[in-house]
Design brief:
It is a single chain. The chain is an alpha+beta fold and about 300 residues long. The protein has four domains: about 60 residues, Orthogonal Bundle (Arc Repressor Mutant, subunit A), CATH 1.10.10; about 40 residues, no CATH class; about 90 residues, SH3 type barrels (Roll), CATH 2.30.30; about 80 residues, Alpha-Beta Plaits (2-Layer Sandwich). About 35% of the residues lie in helices and about 25% in strands. The strands form three sheets. A five-stranded antiparallel sheet has the order 7-6-5-4-8, covered by helices on one side. A hairpin with a 4-residue loop joins strand 6 and strand 7. Helix 2 crosses helix 3 and helix 4 runs antiparallel to helix 5. About 10% of the residues are buried.
Length: about 300
C-alpha cells in the first residue's frame, strides 16, 4: 500500500466532497477492493471517513474535517518527515512526492537533512534490491523461496513466511516462519540468494513468537575471551566492541574482554586482526589459533616448494 495514495485520497475528498470507490479505483488504477482497504486504513488511523450506499452515495469525509498541521506538534512533524525520509533506503514508491507535500503543509524546507543507506560499500545493485523484494513480500503477505547459506557454508532451499526486517549487530536480518523447518527463524540477509516471491498468501502468525535468534546450527555456547590488541587497532576496536569491554593500557595497547561463540567464525575473526591481536585467555583457544597459524605457514611453505 502506498502512503502517497492514502494522502491523495484525502486531498480528492477534500476537493470533491464525495467520490465513489469505482472512480478512485479507476483513477489510481487499482481494484475497488484495494480502495476499500485504503478507506479502512484511513479510518483506523483516525480520519473521519465513511461511505454511503445507494443513489448519490459514495465515500465522504465529515464536513468539519480539515487537514490541519496544528493537530501535530513540532516534534511530531519532524519525526514524521524523518521517518519517511528513512524509507528511501528501501526505495519506497513515491516517497519523495509524499515528503514534498507534507513538508509544504508543515512549512519545512530542510526535510532532506538525512540520507540513510544500509548497504555495504561496493554492494551490487542486486544486493540493494533485496530490501525492496523482501519489503514487498512482507507488505503483501506473500510466501517467498530462496537459497540460504548458514555460517558453515551449508546451502539449503527455504520456503518462508516473511514477517519482519530487523537491523542488529551491524547486520540486516529477515524474521519469519520457515515452512521448510516448521519453526520461526531469523536469516542473515547477506546469506540469502535467488529470492522468489510466490503467489501463495499467508496469514500472519503472532509476532510475539519472533525471537532474534539465528539458525540453530549457528548457535553455539558463548565463551569468554580475553584479547590483547596493539595500539594501532583502536580504530577497529571501537567499531566492533562495546566501549565497556575495552581497556586501554599504559603502553597504548588494548585489552578486550568479550563473549563469542566457539566456532570457526570466531577463529577466523581473531585471525583477521593479523599480528595486531594475541589471545590471552582461554588457553585452549590460544592453542587453536597457534595451530591454525602453523597450518597457514606450512601451506605457504609447501606452495613455495612443490614436490
Amino acid at each position: 500500500m502506498q502512503i502517497n495514495r492514502l494522502f491523495e485520497i484525502i486531498y480528492i475528498l477534500l476537493d470533491k466532497k464525495t467520490v465513489t470507490a469505482k472512480e478512485l479505483a479507476e483513477y489510481f488504477e487499482v481494484s475497488t477492493r484495494t480502495i476499500y482497504r485504503d478507506i479502512n486504513t484511513l479510518s483506523l488511523a483516525g480520519i473521519p471517513i465513511y461511505t454511503n450506499q445507494g443513489k448519490g452515495g459514495g465515500i465522504k469525509l465529515l464536513d468539519n474535517f480539515v487537514l490541519n498541521k496544528s493537530i501535530l506538534s513540532e516534534n511530531e512533524q519532524n519525526e514524521i518527515l524523518a521517518s519517511l525520509q528513512s524509507l528511501n533506503v528501501i526505495k519506497y514508491p513515491n516517497i519523495d512526492n509524499t515528503l514534498s507535500k507534507l513538508s509544504s503543509i508543515f512549512k519545512k524546507d530542510n526535510y532532506k537533512w538525512i540520507e540513510v543507506d544500509f548497504s555495504n560499500w561496493g554492494s551490487s545493485e542486486n544486493e540493494k534490491k533485496k530490501f525492496n523484494t523482501l519489503k514487498k513480500a512482507i507488505m503483501d503477505n506473500n510466501v517467498i523461496m530462496f537459497k540460504y547459506y548458514n555460517s558453515h557454508g551449508e546451502k539449503s532451499n527455504r520456503k518462508v513466511e516473511p514477517m519482519k526486517l530487523i537491523f542488529k549487530a551491524k547486520s540486516w536480518y529477515l524474521q519469519g516462519f520457515c515452512l521448510s523447518k516448521k519453526v520461526f527463524r531469523t536469516f542473515k540477509i547477506t546469506r540469502i540468494f535467488n529470492i522468489q516471491i510466490t503467489e501463495e498468501i499467508f496469514v500472519i502468525k503472532s509476532l510475539d513468537k519472533l525471537q532474534v535468534q539465528p539458525e540453530k546450527q549457528e548457535v553455539n555456547n558463548l565463551i569468554k575471551l580475553k584479547l590483547k590488541f596493539s595500539s594501532n587497532s583502536g580504530y577497529r576496536l571501537y567499531d566492533e566492541f562495546d566501549e565497556k569491554a575495552i581497556e586501554k593500557n599504559k603502553d597504548g595497547s588494548f585489552n578486550v574482554t568479550t563473549f563469542l561463540p566457539e566456532d570457526d567464525w570466531t577463529y577466523g575473526y581473531i585471525l583477521s586482526f593479523g599480528t595486531n591481536v594475541e589471545v590471552i585467555e582461554p588457553e585452549r583457544i590460544r592453542e587453536i589459533i597457534i595451530r591454525k597459524l602453523e597450518n597457514i605457514i606450512e601451506k605457504y611453505r609447501m606452495s613455495n616448494n612443490p614436490s
